[in-house]
Records
---
Amino acid sequence: MPKMKTHSGAKKRFRVTGSGKLMRQQANRRHYLEHKSSRLTRRLKGDKLVSKGSVKQIKRMLGI
């Protein structure tokens, strides 16, 4: 049986913490930033935990 391949898009978007939780970046922080308020871009700065409903699917894509 061949090895499972890691999903290339998923490995760029998610990271695993030391305790095994999945982190993601927030949306709407990529472009058109001159139209968005500084308050909004600061709020979108931090990483967030992946929702519980998506964890199983993402872990499978990452091969965890």
---
Amino acid sequence: MRVQTNWYVLTGGPCSGKSKVIEYLKSKGYNTSKEFARKVIDKGIAKGKTVEEIRKDEIKFQNDILNLKIKFENKLRPKQTIFLDRGIPDSIVYFKEAGLKVDTAVKESSKR
């Protein structure tokens, strides 16, 4: 069953300004979320890994990102207004690009 939300996903290619828009919205007092890939990378770096080591296992990397998105969105209230730097639908594209099954990403996307 699809749930109506007040969530806004900023999506687009790399370096297209998504994160800058998110930073601006945050400065204006809106609820926002950083890009989840950045969170996965920052967590790996904090554990002493390089970006290359973190990205080496593309399946794990993409699944870690998707799982973070799902966990985060499951904590949000549907009527809460928030701007997301990418969202679960973005994972569908990244999974396809990596040759991975998109089933979970599609299923989770259809809930929202």
---
Amino acid sequence: MIELVPGLPPFFNALIVALLVGVAVGTLTTLFVAQAERAKMRRRIAQVAGIMTSSKSASGQRGASAGQRRRVVAAKLKEIEDRAKAKKSSGKSLRDMLLQANLDWTPAKYYVVSAIFALVGTALYLLKGFSPMIAPLVVLTLGIGVPRWLLRRKATKRQKAFIFKFADAVDVIVRGIRSGLPVAECLNIIGREMPEPIGLEFRLIVEGQKLGLTMDEVMERALVRMPTPELSFFAIVLSIQQQTGGNLADTLSKLSDVLRGRKKLKDKIQSLSSEAKASAMIIGSLPFFVTGLLYLVNPDYLMVLFTNPTGHVLIAGGLTWMSLGTFIMSKMIDFDY
């Protein structure tokens, strides 16, 4: 058997080998998924560009104003695409993640809390009498993995709550514009009347306008706090309408229909995939369930896995490949709406 770290028991060497193999396969899988997403985005952009080109050739007789509007729309879409690529290449900073989770923390405070959490958890781990060789992994998990996971979970939960009521907020703007209210007053009504987090985000948009920021600037800041496709669509509509004019109420009404259609599609996908998710959970829990039953019935028969080096290899390999399979299946059902 290969000993990556001389002196360690065979189980830990096997675990290290299995982890390295899992990380390599996971990295290749992630790169493949990212390449597929980029190809999908290029096809989408080419399709949109083709539609706009054909629309321009078919409506050339409608006057120079319509052509000017299409050129402005095309330029705005290109600008948004370039900005999204630049932001994606720069990565997501910790400050942005704290804003998305609506935590009034500085990065320094986050690191201090994570360090305290890791030290306390590691101290409890060592006081329980567990192996000190695993302590570095416990420190990394409790100091980096768990805080980041909790931060992403809070941000994701907040984004889902925002999306759930966002179509209703757009309908409020549509009814307000058709009744003669200015857009700023409609945004102010949403900030006062709608529940969190929609109310908070629209109050911040209104406050930004009062401070003298343009609509593009306040919406760009809102997208940092709430990076959802729905809010991005809304920002594009407002930006294009300010530059080209047009009936904003009708445009937002169509946007509301699109948002509700996206929500229906998301609910349909979740309902269709719920059976597969339940089956995956049952199948994934079977090895642990059967192991517990075997230990209750005949402990000596099962303890060979924990006392024999070959059993260590089997356990490490099984856990690694089960984790990798779970990761791949989660990516397969993780759809972009």
